[in-house]
């Protein structure tokens, strides 16, 4: 953990962490996108549809089920998803990896999506409505159109 | 006050500007605030009501006017979110590190 920043109150509210791993990017990517492997480090049962618009389901961590949507998926490089955890707050998670000297540098940023939404798209999916990825950046309109 | 309601109150840029002016400039009326912003007094009053609803401002009647002042207390929710989400990622990334380095 080399990097710790918190968003200024007048901008996005976010948490960012970077870590250098002594492992090749291909291996790291596998552990970021294979649901079984993600589940181990996330501490829950995880199902991921590894594509833009795919669903993420996190269960069994004892705090209630979490539904999310893959917002961006660039193989070997970047995965982003939005989710709403047990605290009820929607957030965007962005994870990016890049090769460094003899391993991989991983950066994760979780940004609060503070807009009051009545439903996340993933929850509509569970009720049988097709998923619609919304913008990976917090725009009120993008969220409103999905919440409507 | 529910955390998400505080965040929702802060999500509007104009409302945040109103709050920021109260924090920097001290107590003011809706009329005072509207004078420095490109919106009507009525619009400012609506934003103040939203901020009042989550206790980010305090109302005090002074003669015929209502004077508003900034209350920082609810912002603790922001600090708590950053703290708790940061701790979660510290734990997850440490587990991920052990996991991938073991996999090699």
Write up this protein.
The complex is a heterodimer of chains A (148) and B (104). Chain A has one domain (5-147): Alpha-D-Glucose-1,6-Bisphosphate, Chain A, domain 4 (2-Layer Sandwich), CATH 3.30.530.20. Helices cover 21% and strands 38% of the residues of chain A. Chain A has 4 helices and 8 strands; from the N terminus they run E-E-H-H-E-E-E-E-E-E-H-H. Chain A has helices at 25-33, 35-42, 121-126, 140-147; strands at residues 5-6, 14-21, 45-48, 55-59, 66-74, 78-84, 90-100, 103-112. Chain A is globular. Chain B has 104 residues and is mostly helical. Chain B contains 5 helices and 2 strands. A two-stranded antiparallel ribbon of chain B has the order 1-2. In chain B, helix 2 (13-25) crosses helix 4. The longest helix of chain B has 28 residues, at 76-103. Chain B is elongated, with a radius of gyration of 20 Å. The mean pLDDT of chain B is 90. Chain A binds chain B through residues 1, 4, 6-7, 9-10, 13, 15, 17, 19, 21-24, 27-28, 31, 37, 40-43, 87-89, 91, 106, 108, 110, 112, 114-116, 140, and chain B through 2-5, 7-8, 10-11, 16, 20, 75, 78, 81-82, 84-86, 89-93, 95-97, 99-101, 103-104.
Query: What is the average of the pLDDT values of chain B?
Result: 90
User: What is the makeup of the main sheet of chain A?
Assistant: 8 strands, antiparallel
CATH classification class of chain A: Alpha Beta
Mean pLDDT of chain A: 74
Whole-number radius of gyration of chain B? 20 Å
**CATH architecture term of chain B:** Orthogonal Bundle
The second-level CATH architecture of chain A is 2-Layer Sandwich
Q: Strand order, main sheet of chain A: write it out.
A: 1-2-8-7-6-5-4-3
User: What is the multimeric organization of the chains shown?
Assistant: heterodimer
pLDDT < 50 runs, ≥5 residues of chain A: 1-10, 116-148
Please, how many helices of chain A?
Answer: 4
CATH superfamily grouping of chain B: Winged helix-like DNA-binding domain superfamily/Winged helix DNA-binding domain
Using CB atoms under 8 Å apart, which protein chain pair has the greatest interface? Answer: A-B, 34 and 30 residues
- Considering DSSP H and I runs of 4 or more, what fraction of the residues of chain B is helical? 55-70%
